[in-house]
Amino acid sequence: MKWFFALLIGIGTGFAAVFINISVENFAGWKFSLTFNIIQKSYLAGCLIYILINLALVFSSVSIITQFAPAAAGSGIPEIKGYLNGIDIPGILLLRTLIGKIFGSIGSVGGGLALGKEGPLVHTGACIASLLGQGGSTKYHISSRWLQGFKSDRDRHGLVTCGCAAGVAAAFRAPVGGVLFALEEVTSWWRSQLMWRVFFTSAIVAVVVCAAMEWCKSGNCGHFGLGGFIIWDISGGQEDYSFEELLPMAVIGVIGGLLGALFNQLTIYVTRWRRNYLHKKGNRVKVHIYSYRHTYIFR
What we know:
Elements: H1 2-39, H2 43-68, H3 77-84, H4 95-110, H5 118-133, E1 136-137, E2 142-143, H6 153-172, H7 175-186, H8 192-220, H9 246-278, H10 283-298
Helix pairs in contact: 1-2, 1-4, 1-5, 1-6, 1-8, 2-4, 2-10, 4-5, 5-6, 6-7, 6-8, 7-8
Membrane topology: Multi-pass membrane protein
Protein name: Chloride channel protein
Keywords: CBS domain, Chloride, Chloride channel, Ion channel, Ion transport, Membrane, Repeat, Transmembrane, Transmembrane helix, Transport, Voltage-gated channel
């Protein structure tokens, strides 16, 4: 049963990743195609259409999170780390959290926000694993007694570990990376039997994702591109380097470090402002301020 559930987790997480990536790339493709066609006639009209489409996508994702699934806010990795290390966080593995994470990721990434899909996919995989382990969702009357085979905390812990590893494997198409993430970053309780199930789950995810990419190459996925499932799709490159390239590399490293430190400091200031002022004024203010901030950043 545990191996069968590992198979189901891998298939479910793989299909969730396929759905998220195809949706994001198609929204982005439609957005840029429409903007490009309008810019040929009027640059201002094209700019306004681009802003409105981004606002609509971001507004939809923010509304889903604030009104329907507040536990889906954020990347999801800190919450899953806390859960797998013994901290009970209410609502992070519910069905509505899974729905909010999937559609919130589509709206945020499709709307142009500087967000990745690793954290959301880790949270998505953990939610799928938890829901399968408890037989579905009793609140929404989507449950099966046949699937309710894991009642102990140890078994659920193993399933959620498989789910978070599957999320990393889906994000980077890297089964071994999913195993290492679960082993080194997420959980403190580990055993050799769990390692093999985690690797099996990650391998199933990689197979599902690769099969989807092959299917999309024939043009069945709209605007979906060849590199949609992986950030660095490198097929060739420079094998060696010359001594003169070391100085530009060092300069790039210094600039990157300074910009990273500035980004982290600004993030701290913004987070404190949100905690002290924004979260005290309710969900409606959050939606309006988030949407306005997206417009301001674009301008």
